[in-house]
Amino acid sequence: MRAIRETVNELNALRPESQLPRWEPLAERGPQAAQTTATILIVDDVELNRRLLRGMLKASSYRILEAKRPSAAIALLEHEDVDLVIVDLVMPQMSGPDFCRALKANRKTHLIPILMTTSVQGVDNEIASLDSGADEFLVKPLQPAVIRGRIRTMLRHKALIDSLEEAETILFALAQSVEQRDKYTGLHCERLAAYSIALGRALGLSKAEQLTLYRGGYLHDIGKVSIPDNILFKRGLLNEEEWKIMRLHTIRGEEICRPMKSLAPVLPIIRNHHERWDGTGYPDSLAGENIPLLARILQVADIYDALTTARTYKPAFSHEDAVQIMLDEVGRGWRDPELVPLFAELILKGDDYDPGFWSGDASMKQSLENMREELTK
Ligand SMILES: [Fe+2]
Q1: How far is the CA of 246 from the centre of ligand 1 (A)?
Q2: Domain, as residue range, for 321
Q3: Which of 105, 106, 301, 354 is deepest in the core (most CB within 10 A)?
Q4: Which residues surround ligand 1, an ion (CB under 5 A)?
Q5: pLDDT tens, residue by residue, 208-258
Q6: 339 alpha carbon to ligand 1 midpoint, in Å?
């Protein structure tokens, strides 16, 4: 975990102060540490129940928080990092299952494991609580050894999820540091994610596919970490040998992300975002619809952003000029003949569900963050 903190600090050092939020690793704890320093929130309106639970967990050195009501628990979760919630099935204001649903619908709390307890017998209650997202269900009277065992298991799973999230956070930070090294591209990753999701929505893609596009917006060029600076930032044309190395960023990117199973859907974007419709692209010379759809979508967004952004060797083109250049490339056989006109239509008319997407500034970042939350629910 120490290595994660150091890595994130190094990545933060690469990021300009004025742009983008700092990366923060999640709580620094491994499976072992989670058993002794985890924070547990007990939500129960009956004081005796809370006291009993606290007594059962006393020897385990957990940090225990208490809330009498679900509303107080939700308010507390806004500013506390909690590793496990124990909640009673029957409470005033909001039932245990409703409370569960509220936590699972919130990105900040949806990964917190929930143990539901009740003194009301019946399999229906168990089904209702598990349906609402509770991870475990125990009927009172609670047996101290049983509840301690369940909590240990749940905290081990939580620590594993945290470490997976941290690994993904590092990859995203790494990908952005690559983009940030080129000071002319600004919010390139965010714009790509926003444009791609907009195009994905217009095509009726699922939430999961839109989320993959979001991730692809950030990770597609992560392989550029392996490209030497003298090639990556060369002013002027690359020679044949340098091009060979530059093209490898697609394969290197796939290799970097492949070990993370959760990123499997993003791999085709990373590998194939430089293919061409007529088969003259790289690295696999795929043609037409053999090029994965999500890679084609990201490519359209990538090209549009490259054209409309000022670079050392060219000014920023207007929307209209950029679209015309892309349509010319369709004529040459390079680009998807259906996606490019659809994107052109979208971009020229703006977007009616969230104008912030198209602003290219801080409000676009906020819109994108809102979108990511919606997609991950
Ligand atoms: Fe690329």
Answers
A1: 9
A2: 184-376
A3: 301
A4: 221
A5: 999 999 999 989 999 988 888 888 888 788 899 999 999 999 999 999 888
A6: 19
